[in-house]
Design goal:
Layout (H helix, E strand, L loop, with lengths): L14 H11 L9 H9 L3 H8 L7 H11 L3 H7 L6 H5 L12 H7 L5 H21 L3
Helix pairs in contact: 2-3, 4-5
Length: about 140
Amino acid sequence: MTNGSQPEPPLDAPFADWLRWALARHGYDPEERGVQRRFADASGLPVATVSRLLRNASQPDVSTCYALGVTFDVPVLPVLVRAGHLPAEVLDKEPSPTERPAPTTQQQALAALGITDPADQTAVLSMINALKAKDRREGVN
């Protein structure tokens, strides 16, 4: 097995092909015994989810795409495109991080994440505040 020397699969390739490529690129041999468990532990994803994705038995949901992007330290937007949640055209329209001004308000940050509906923004901010309060109660910074 190569350690990621293969080119990245095209955006329209099966998601399983990209996941195998990304795993190999990050030192996981998808064919090695126990690698699904190790990757699941590292990513916080259930082993069953990793297994289904590698068998191309399902597509990842949005939260799984996010976890994969974070674990592989790659932008989440292309992962969402590969999973079929967004059209490929969004990649052409997305400015690079250096071209994009940093959000200065919570609403701007949420809008930058694609959360533009005021009710959705309120819900996300409520969840963030609840998690912050929980962390304070538990003594987590």
